[in-house]
Amino acid sequence: MPEFAYHASHEQFAPSSLLRYLKMAEQAGFTGGMSSDHFHPWSREQGQSGFAWSWLGAALEGTSLSMGVVNAPGQRYHPAIIAQAAATLAEMYPDRFWLAMGSGQALNEKITGDRWPHKSERNARLKECVEIIRALWSGETVNHRGLVTIEEATLYTRPEKPPKIIGAAITAKTAYWAGKWADGLITISQPREKLKSIVQAFWEGGGEGKPMILKVQLSIAQDEEKALQGALREWRVNVFDSQVLTDLSTPEKLEMMAKYVRPEDIREMVRISADPQRHIEWLCADRDMGFDTLVLHNVNREQEFFIEQFGENVLPQLGRSGEGV
After folding, report:
1. pLDDT tens digits, the chain, 325 residues: what are they?
2. Count H helices, E strands: the chain?
């Protein structure tokens, strides 16, 4: 059975609220959690941007859930710092922490003032970072000069078992590439045929048999209209092509792009329904596609309603226990 994880969206809620929601989710039957890692929210209306790495320690200590985070090393974060942070969490909470890595978004990474590289260069930088992090976890003294630089670095506090490094991909091309080096795949819910192509590309690239995680973007509320309007208000900036989302550098620019997003546009990227049975059908299809972990992100503000509804009406129908990553 897949693991069902609660997504903690630092762009939308204060860290204290997210910790409370995570504890509620554990009581409701969720078996894992995942944290975003943003410096800016997607829009000013979302209005939050807590520091994920401070929060993750509290989340792991305050629950018994497995936890993951999606991170982009190489610009905002030096890979040695991420190696150290992840190793500390994995040493304190064995077999409960996983780390996903992607090439990042200008919205968060460009705050350093450095040039924002082309996607191909960001991918090459990411691969360097992954190799550095794995070398540090293995106890090597690392020297490297390339797209990132590291000198005489040795990581002394290391877990007995290093966390998995999951490759983040939202296109088939990136998924194929991630299959060659990543310990697994994380992607987002998209129209079914596109999602199938991402899974197939990951397998063809070398990922067959590796764990796969799907971040499910959904909106459930007391009625259909409230679910739709909540998704439009909170997640309308996220309907665009990945190139647009990764290259725009401020919430204001994303808001300008999203000004004319229509309900039919948001339905392409967010599963909107007030009916728990409809969500069960969607999630069963995800499970059948081979995803090991389903990270459930209710994109509207109705977090307590979402947790209660899924705990009572959705998770029991899907099976509450499962092996995560």
Report:
1. 569 999 999 999 999 999 999 999 999 999 999 999 999 998 898 999 999 999 999 999 999 999 999 999 999 999 999 999 999 999 999 999 999 999 999 999 999 999 999 999 999 999 999 999 999 999 999 999 999 999 999 999 999 999 999 999 999 999 999 999 999 999 999 999 999 999 999 999 999 999 999 999 999 999 999 999 999 999 988 887 777 788 888 889 988 888 888 888 899 899 999 999 999 999 999 999 999 999 999 999 999 999 999 999 999 998 744 444 5
2. 14, 11
Using alpha carbons, list the distances in angstroms from residue 221 to 38, 192, 217, 256, 302.
26, 23, 14, 27, 7
Spatial distance between the Cα atoms of 50 and 46, rounded to a whole number of angstroms: 12
> Which residues in 58-94 are b (16+ Cβ under 10 Å) and which e?
ebbeebebbbbbbbbbbbbbbbbebbbbbbbbbeebe
Helix (H) or strand (E) holding 135: helix 119-137
d(CA 65, CA 26): 7
Predicted TM-score of the model (pTM): 0.94
Q: According to the 3-state scheme, what is the secondary structure of 143-203?
A: EEECCCEEEEECCCCCCCCCCCEEEECCCHHHHHHHHHHCCEEEEECCCHHHHHHHHHHHH
What residue ranges in 93-148 does DSSP mark as E strands? 97-101, 142-145
CB 58 within 8 A of CB 19: yes
Does 3.20.20.30 match the CATH number of domain 3-318? yes
What residues contact residue 32 under an 8 Å CB cut-off, 6+ apart? 3, 4, 5, 6, 65, 66, 67, 68, 293, 295, 324
Tokens of 163: 């966390």
Cα–Cα dist 133/128, whole Å: 9
